[in-house]
Structure formats: C-alpha cells, structure tokens
C-alpha cells in the first residue's frame, strides 16, 4: 500500500530554498511513501464570500476545490516553509485559510502533518514553524512531537545542484520523515 503525501512549500520564488529542501525531503521519504508538491501560487486570495452560501454571485473558485480535494485524498501533508516577518509567508497562510473551509468539510481535519522550516539566518524559521502550528492547532492534526526541524543558515546546507551538502542534514531530515511516516501509518490504523 502506498501512502500519498502532499507537500506544501511556503515560498513562490523560482530560486526558493524551501522548494529545494522540499525536493530533498521528497527523495528521502521512506519506502511506501509517494510525496509531491501541491502548488499554492495560483490560489486566489482567500475571501469567505466564495464559501458563503448566502453570498450570491461569488462561486467557489475551481482552484480552491481542486486544492481541497487534493488534500483530502492525501494521507498526510508536509509543510516546508521559510519565515517572513517572524511568521509564515502570506502565500502559506492563504493556503491554510483555504483548507480551513467550509466548516462542514475541512480539508485539514485530522490530516497528519509534518513541518520543516528554514531560514538563511541562524534561527531556522523558528517563529514561522511555531506560528504554523498555532494556525493548524484548531484542526486536530496529528504531528510528530520530536524531532523538530529548524534548518538554519539554509544557504550553506545546499550545493549548486540544490542537494543537501552534509550527511548530517540528510540523516536528520530522513529521521524526521521516518517519524512523520510513523504518525501517518498510526493514524491510518486508528
Ligand atoms: C518579506 C521577507 C521577510 C523576511 N522575514 C524573515 C524573518 O522574519 N526571519 C528570517 O529568518 N528570515 C526572513 N526573511 C529571509 C528569508 O528567510 C529568506 O529570504 C529565505 O531565503 C526565503 O525563503 P525561500 O528561499 O524559500 O524563498 C525574509 C525575507 C523576506 C523576503
């Protein structure tokens, strides 16, 4: 049985380090797991009118529906995000809000989740990761407790091909993904 993981990258820029880290993580997923990036850049800015049955003339955008269906079909979600202004980038918050509605069918609800944050500075996107956990805390999503992955000085972690330079980074991220995979499996058995 193959487990599918949606990977959400909290950066839209072409040269994003978060995207490179996400691609490394996808390659390091345990056997039996298939992960792929779900794009969030084309999602219209969240507006509750789209989800409000009382708001005529503002149908739910097709991009919202397809994003929600992709999440609901997955066995888990892995976020890989930088930090902007001490919190999550706006594109990621937009995706979180879109996944949080409608109340009757919340895509995030109960979905096992993992987070890898990074920063070009030393703190590894600490505030971003904590803020993302806070934003998701309403949806009863199982997370690995430990380890937590804050990748600081991320520019130095990747080579010119976008691959992790050090074996220690590979082992650390692999161990995290193994723990995340356990959470996904446990959730499916429960
Ligand atoms: C608008 C903006 C705000 C930022 N705020 C923070 C911040 O609060 N903390 C931090 O560590 N880095 C911050 N940075 C630096 C980012 O970590 C850095 O640009 C990183 O490479 C972005 O991730 P990406 O390569 O995945 O796009 C900020 C960058 C931008 C453009």
In terms of topology, how is this protein built?
Blueprint: E1 3-9, H1 17-27, E2 33-37, H2 62-73, E3 76-81, H3 90-99, E4 113-118, H4 126-136, E5 149-151, H5 167-189
Parallel strand pairs: 1-2, 1-3, 3-4, 4-5
Bound molecules: flavin mononucleotide (FMN).
Flavin mononucleotide (FMN) binds at residues 11, 13, 16-18, 82-86, 119-121, 123.
Summarize the structure in short.
The chain has 190 residues and is of the alpha/beta class.
Spell out the key features of this protein.
190 residues, alpha/beta, Rossmann fold, 5 helices, 35% helix, globular, binds flavin mononucleotide
As for the CATH topology, it is Rossmann fold
Number of domains: 1
Just give the CATH class: Alpha Beta
Strand arrangement, major sheet: 2-1-3-4-5
Number of H/I helices: 5
The SSE string, one letter per element, is: EHEHEHEHEH
Number of strands: 5
- Radius of gyration (CA) equals 16 Å
Question: What would you call the structural class?
Answer: alpha/beta
Main β-sheet, in a few words?
5 strands, parallel
Associated small molecules: flavin mononucleotide
Estimate percent helicity: 25-40%
Sum up the overall morphology in one term.
globular
CATH-defined superfamily: Flavodoxin domain
Question: Can you tell me the residue ranges where pLDDT is under 50 for at least 5 consecutive residues?
Answer: none
Q: Mean of the pLDDT scores?
A: 96
What CATH architecture label applies?
3-Layer(aba) Sandwich
Q: State the end-to-end distance.
A: 16 Å
Query: What percentage of amino acids are in beta strands?
Result: 5-15%
């Amino acid at each position: 049985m193959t487990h599918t993981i949606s990977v959400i990258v909290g950066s839209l820029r072409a040269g994003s380090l978060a995207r490179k880290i996400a691609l490394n993580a996808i390659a390091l997923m345990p056997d039996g797991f298939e992960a792929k990036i779900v794009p969030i850049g084309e999602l219209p800015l969240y507006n509750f009118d789209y989800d409000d049955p009382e708001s005529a003339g503002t149908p739910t955008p097709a991009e919202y529906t397809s994003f929600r269906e992709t999440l609901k079909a997955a066995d888990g979600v892995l976020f890989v995000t930088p930090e902007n202004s001490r919190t999550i980038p706006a594109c990621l918050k937009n995706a979180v809000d879109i996944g949080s509605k409608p109340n009757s069918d919340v895509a995030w609800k109960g979905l096992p989740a993992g987070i890898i944050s990074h920063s070009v500075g030393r703190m590894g996107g600490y505030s971003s990761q904590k803020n993302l956990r806070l934003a998701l805390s309403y949806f009863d999503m199982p997370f690995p407790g430990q380890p937590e992955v804050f990748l600081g000085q991320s520019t130095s972690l990747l080579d010119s091909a976008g691959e992790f330079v050090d074996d220690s980074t590979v082992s650390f991220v692999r161990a995290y993904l193994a723990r995340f995979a356990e959470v996904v499996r446990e959730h499916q058995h429960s």
